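Pasting as-is:
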Amino acid sequence: LGNIYLHEGQNNMAIYNYNWAIALIPDYAEAYYNRGNAYINKGDYESAIENLDKVISSKPNFDIAYNARGIAYAHKGQYDMAINDYNMAITINPTYTDAYYNQGLTFLDKEMFDMAIDAFTKVISLNPNYADAFNSLGVVYIRKGQNDMAINNFNRAIAINPDYALAYYNRGIAFLKKGQNNISIEDFQKACKLGN
């Protein structure tokens, strides 16, 4: 039942149900993992980390728990701890695209642009249809001042997902930085029309 509430975004109800599951089965690692994710969704990163620590101590090869804990650490601004967890997830599962992707986002937050490029490029090599990776790669190139490279990546993200509002918005920024105001306005309007 907790999983249904978690999927529906009803995090408090999910936590309530996971509490019952853990009370019945105190070493139920999956319940701790899912409760940790519910706490991440609520923005209670410390509680998320506590739950995910319990999962990892009982299941040290549970790659998705390392990834989730890395997300919690990143939200707390503890980027090195996050990167360590993403590295553990990747060591356990070298094809874990979400761990590489989250690692890339953390490198971007740390302004380690070349490392971010490597991480997003690895995601794309594992899954060439990972639109978020192309979008994030484009953001890195904007931050590096390489707007043509950024536009190329936003184009790829949009080709994969033609309704990707954020990719249109980001491409608009790249065109604006190039002084191509008319094209940037079109992208901003498209992003607004698509929402978010």
